[in-house]
Amino acid sequence: MSEVVTASKFKWSDLIKKEDWWAIWLGFIVLLLSTISYLTGAFPFKSSKPGSWGAGTPIIESFSGKIPGIIFTFIVLAILFAIGVKFMGENVGKFLIGFAGVFVLATIAYLLSAQSTMSQYLEYAFWALAIGLLVSNTVKTPEWMKPAVKTEYYIKTGLVIFGAEVLFSNVVQFGLYGLGIAWGVTPVVIIFMWQYGTKILKMTSKPMVIVIATATSVCGVSAAIAAAAASKASKDDLTFAVGLSLMFTVLMMVFMPLLIKAVGMSEMVGGAWIGGTVDSTGAVVLAGEALGPVGGQVAALVKMIQNVLIGIIAFAIAVFFATKVDRDESGPAVGASEIWHRFPKFILGFIAASIIFSFIYEPAIGKEGVNGVLSNSKGFKGWCFCLAFTCIGLESNFKEMAQYIQGGKPLWLYIVGQSFNLVLTLLVAWLLLSGIIFPVPNIAV
Q1: Which of 126, 154, 260, 312 has a beta carbon 3.0–4.6 Å from 388's, enabling a disulfide?
Q2: What pLDDT was estimated at residue 326?
Q3: Distance from C-alpha of 231 to C-alpha of 391, rounded to nearest angstrom
Q4: How far apart (Å, rounded) are the C-alpha atoms in residues 244 and 414?
């Protein structure tokens, strides 16, 4: 054990040599530049992506006025990621050449997701994953592109930036109602799915179990990414979890509002039900607004309160896997230094960004000011995620992934877990918001 502890001691050089730390530094650089740009107006710091097309608008119009912004986005991200690559001891020239190729594929993914009809159902993550899979399973990922296929590097940086969007003021806005629906149900669903996946289905990949459970109970893609990093899940595990989440998100987004209206459920209860169960934040907003203004507001609030749990749950998963799942039962107990060694440090950046924007930014510049800063940073977060999902596809092979299907067990885990989530969330939402037990909260729209 003494040897493990020695190997796990913190080294100051890790701050400039390890990917997790660079994700934090780059994430905060984006947030800092976004802040300075908004507060001073001295320079524009906004990313750009292809605009909407289809329904009479030709595809070429998607790039109308967008090309300078897309080029600027490429330059900013290329420079930032290259700095980290340099300090991590890798070849910057090869990285930049490969990054150009990955960025082009990500741009195509954004272009497809901007099609006017499909944009209502499938987000960029689906198209990025699909394009990467198409390349890797047909012509194969080119060797020159591989130095820039850095899935976790992009994911972790995007999550640090995303942390700034998770504001604790959202918890206050909906009070105990939101806490009961979002925080009360989520841990129960995760524990239920973990027990079902490991004890009943006896799935061999425990990281896949926890990634699917977290994606189902929290907020889909972002939660799956954080859980995968915390549990050291393989990229194939993450690919399956994200694929399941995206597929069922589309179905739930379309059919849940129809069901809610058909049975005469109130907007508030229906919105809370959608917010607590539909995996994607974007899909939650669309589905909630299909009920009406109150339903849309409640759905968004519940989902945002739920998002606050991402960092907390990822931290808990990292500790649980280090001390229980991955621990050698015949060996000595895992100490704090080993937990620190295994812990994904970027989660600290996510939590720090959330705290800073919640308790420093918001009191200082107000909600409007925070939204102004986030309007700059959100685009770069989206590009980081789009690059990451493109890379997941580029690294995945269908033949190699077949072994992870495990006789359809991941699908059963999701279906049973999401069914439990739907029933429990509806029950809690009805108890809290129907007005039978507690007074109905006043939601301004």
Answers
A1: 154
A2: 67
A3: 20
A4: 8
Query: How many other C-beta atoms are found inside a 10 Å radius of the C-beta of residue 148?
Result: 25
Helix then strand then coil, % of the chain, to nearest 5: 75, 0, 25
pLDDT value, residue 82: 97
Tell me the per-residue pLDDT of 288-343, one tens digit each, with 9 for 90 and over: 877 887 887 788 788 878 877 787 888 888 888 888 776 655 555 555 665 666 66
Structural contact between residues 223 and 311, judged by C-beta atoms closer than 8 angstroms: no
CA distance 432 to 440: 8
Q: Which residue, among 235, 230, 229, 241, has the nearest Cα to 203 in the 3D structure?
A: 241
CA distance 291 to 445: 13
Q: What is the DSSP-derived secondary structure letter of residue 178?
A: H
The per-residue pLDDT for range 78-113, each reduced to its tens digit, is 999 999 999 999 999 999 999 999 999 999 999 998
| CA distance linking residue 110 with residue 122, whole number of Å | 11
Mean pLDDT of 398-417: 75
Given this model, what pLDDT does residue 4 score? 35
Q: Alpha-carbon dihedral of residues 150, 72, 62, 247, nearest 10 degrees?
A: 30
Beta bridge partners of 53: 115
Residue in 159, 180, 183, 419 with CA at minimum distance from that of residue 313: 183
Q: Which residue shows structure tokens 């490969």?
A: 98
Residue 53, SS3 per DSSP: strand
- Given a cut of 50, whether residue 188 has pLDDT beyond it is yes
pLDDT band at 219 (very low <50, low <70, confident <90, very high): confident
Whether the CB-CB separation of 172 and 40 falls below 8 Å is answered with no
pLDDT at 6 over 50: no
DSSP string, 407-438: GGHHHHHHHHHHHHHHHHHHHHHHHHHSSSSS
Please report which confidence band the pLDDT of residue 287 belongs to, taking 50, 70 and 90 as the band edges. confident
3-class SS of residue 57: strand
Taking CA atoms, 48 is separated from 75, 156, 237, in Å, by: 12, 21, 31
* Rounded Cα distance, 414 and 122, in Å: 19
Cα(318)–Cα(151) distance, integer angstroms: 19
Beta bridge pairs of residue 54: 57
Write the pLDDT tens digit of every residue in 8-48: 455 767 777 888 899 999 999 999 999 999 999 888 999 99
C-alpha to C-alpha distance for 240 and 244, rounded to whole angstroms: 6
Provide the CA 247 distance to its chain's centre, in angstroms. Answer: 16
User: Do 132 and 393 contact (CB within 8 A), yes or no?
Assistant: yes
